[in-house]
Amino acid sequence: MSAWLPAAPCTPGQCVERSRAAAAVPLAVLRLTAVAVLLLAGAAVVLTPLGRGRPRRWGTVPAVVVRCWCRWIVRAAGVRVRVTGAAPPGGGLLLVANHVSWLDVPLLAAVRPARMLAKSDIRRWPVAGPIAARGGVLFIERDRLRALPDTVATIAKSLREGAAVAVFPEGSTWCGRAQGRYRRAVFQAALDAGVPVQPVRIRYRTGERAVSTVPAFVGEDTLLASLWRVASARGLMAEVEVRPVIAPDRHPDRRGLAHAAQGKAPSESMCAL
């Protein structure tokens, strides 16, 4: 395990709570079906030929359509969404957010459609690989520290071309009560490209609870288990706080930029329910 691929101490058994107000099984199944339908519809749009047989690629679908589609996915899973603030609508931008759940991906895209980072193994997956590639995903070799400079250069190139790139700098999912420190490497790409950084804070609530860990996707948790936990929960709320953008000339080095983007220093201790 390298510094580029850190691991969180959070585990499903110690950190993830069970919903006290579970939805009926038919409702949970209906929610998952709706999510699947929306995902298939999005995949169909990405794979639809444009013009002379050329595939639809990242950036060709209107941003408003992408944002609405992403919100629909989260809502279909039974999670309400509250967004405060807004990101710049155009130009190169590094979007950074804390990482709790698979829900973070559509939530961040709902703030502003962006190219996501993904491990290179996904490119070889039978169905998801081609869809991700045509959707503009940036594939990186996260388990090879030597590949880090090339990764930073790839991100910087996309930023210079005017794209938004979305990154979860913690490098791993955390339960939401505890949080990892932002790794500094990706912030070097923003400095090299001379583009602003857009910090985003994602938090999940259930009823009056300050923080809910129901949507967390951590440790040895499986995607299927996490999907069912979210779909069968009641009263889940995703709060997305778009914080003030950080200009490229505000911080001369990546350490200061990463610290400013994350805000107060997090606690990396094991959290308990």
How would you describe this protein?
The protein has 273 residues and is α/β, with parallel strands linked by helices. It has 9 helices and 9 strands. The strands form 2 sheets. Strands 3-9-8-4-7-5-6 form a 7-stranded mixed beta sheet, with helices on both faces. A two-stranded antiparallel sheet has the order 1-2. Strand 1 (49-50) and strand 2 (54-55) form a beta hairpin. Helix 2 (25-47) runs antiparallel to helix 3, helix 3 packs antiparallel against helix 4 and helix 6 (148-160) packs parallel to helix 7. The two termini are 27 Å apart.
What key phrases describe this protein's structure?
alpha/beta; 16% strand; globular; 9 helices; single chain; two-stranded antiparallel ribbon; 273 residues
| Beta-strand content bin | 15-25%
SSE ordering: HHEEHEEHEHEHEHEHEH
Helix content: 25-40%
Could you say which overall geometry the principal axes of the C-alpha atoms support? Answer: globular
Rounded mean pLDDT score? 82
Low-confidence stretches: 50-57
- Strand arrangement across the biggest beta sheet: 3-9-8-4-7-5-6
The structure class reads alpha/beta
Query: Radius of gyration, rounded?
Result: 18 Å
Number of helices: 9
Total number of beta strands: 9
